[in-house]
Structure prediction request, 178 residues.
Amino acid sequence: MLPMPFDPSIAAEFERVALLNPPIIERVQAAEIGSDYFLAMVPTWAAQIDEDVDRRLAALREGSRSLFDSRKDAPPQEHAVAVEHFERSLSENVAGLLRTIDRFSSRFNRAAKKNAKLERVRPDVERIVAAGHREIEAKIDEVMSFRAARADIDPASRGGPAFDNAEDLGSYLRRVLT
Prediction:
């Protein structure tokens, strides 16, 4: 069992917010592309996605702060193990969300070649995909915050590649996480 220097209710809320894919991404991905339902709902989902992702990212950032605020008295080794757990869980979620979005985008593009009606919802689909990528980028930032915190807590976790710019870091993370 994971040593848990965090308040269990705070940890559970963080995992609920951080480790579930956006509900709209799940709905879009599960819908049959090209169906009347899909064509009717994609514009609605696209209209909701930015607000949904903004709300989820604010909750993610608040959850991260709450996690760290709740551990003030934890022994450093125990805290480092828990931070590593959340870092790893969030990294796995990022990789899975990226696969989900990329698979959906590929399926949509293949279906659009066969069904011209899908072109009318392409801008909405692109908006949904872009919002999903925005969530991925924000979660990568949180992963990096966890790594930095772990390095501050546990000197043994320091090391690894260093980056001079965000593009190189992003490329590295995409390679590692996918």
Residues 8-177 form one domain.
